[in-house]
Amino acid sequence: MFWRGRGRTAPQWRSPQAKGGFKVADGVAGANPENGAGGDDPSRRDFIHIAAGAAAAGAAVTIAWPLVDQMNPAGDTLALASVEFDLTKVELGQSVTIKWRGKPLFIRHRTGAEIAAAIKDDNAPMRDPQTDEVRHKPGKAEWLVLIGTCTHLGCVPTFGGGDYKGWFCPCHGSHYDTSGRIRKGPAPTNLAVPEYAFVSDNMVKVG
Ligand code: FES
After folding, report:
1. Does residue 168 sit in the same domain as residue 134?
2. What are phi and psi of 163, to 5 degrees?
3. pLDDT tens, 11-40?
4. Host domain of residue 39
5. Which residue has the higher pLDDT, 124 or 78?
6. Is residue 142 part of a domain?
7. Is the CB of 153 under 6 A from ligand 1?
8. Same domain assignment for residues 30 and 99
9. I need a labelling partner for 117 at 20 to 30 A (CA). Which of 18, 44, 183, 202 fits?
């Protein structure tokens, strides 16, 4: 109802205005001649508040739909949900960085020495202990596929640097080994391994 408060009169119902009859409450703005057209009638204010609220809710729905619609992934975004990469482009001992879902992705072709160094440290004290074996696909130790953002605050580490010759993050000095495991510095976890698969001997699909 549109009235409330001490000393205020509840609106009176009038007779139907015409046959077939609907009823009009006098408290509704403009319906009671005694109130005139002035803006002092509390019931009028109530009505205006309610009407304004309803209008705002309608506007919110109107605005919300385009926003929700925009949040649906566009076709080009879906296309980037997964990416295939030809590994023949990466020389032994090198790493390339590609973009995937807006993030850098490291694809590293490890040498035998780099693999051996990683395995040798499997049991070393680590902040985020993992063996090298679980960080690559079975039988594919020469290939590392990692998300290339430092797990501290998201900088992109540089290839081959740091005390462990894996990656070094210059932002705050995090050192990763040749398996991408955090070994020194503030980063809390290893470089993340994304979901990926070998679709042929020389082709990986990430995502
Ligand atoms: S962002 Fe890499 S060490 Fe801080």
Report:
1. yes
2. -70, -20
3. 333 333 333 332 222 222 223 333 333 344
4. 22-71
5. 124
6. yes
7. yes
8. no
9. 202
Q: Could you tell me if residue 5 is inside a domain?
A: no
Distance (Å) from CA 28 to ligand 1 centroid: 64
| Cα–ligand 1 centroid distance for 149 (angstroms) | 9
Alpha helices in 72-130 (DSSP H): 75-79, 112-120
The answer to whether the CB of 150 is under 6 A from ligand 1 is yes
166, pLDDT greater than 90: yes
Separation of CA 65 and ligand 1 centre (Å): 39
Show the tokens assigned to 111: 């040498």
154 CA distance to ligand 1 centroid (A)? 6
Whether the per-residue pLDDT at 99 is higher than 90: the answer is yes
- In the chain, the number of structural domains is 2
* Mean pLDDT value across the chain: 74
Residue 145 Cβ inside 6 Å of ligand 1? The answer reads no
pTM, rounded to two decimals: 0.64
Nearest ligand 1 atom, CA 154: 1
pLDDT in tens, 128-139: 999 999 999 999
Looking at ligand 1, which atom is closest to the CA of residue 173? 3
Residues β-bridged to residue 100: 103
Per the domain annotation, does 15 fall within a domain? no
CATH number, domain of 187, equals 2.102.10.10
Most distant CA atoms of the chain, gap in Å = 97
Instruction: Report the nearest-CA residue for atom 3 of ligand 1.
Output: 172
Q: Round to whole Å and give the CA distance between 139 and 112.
A: 13
Same domain as 133, residue 57: no
Specify whether 141 is located in the same domain as 197: yes
- The CA distance from 32 to 18, in Å, is 17
Residues 151 and 198 in one domain: yes
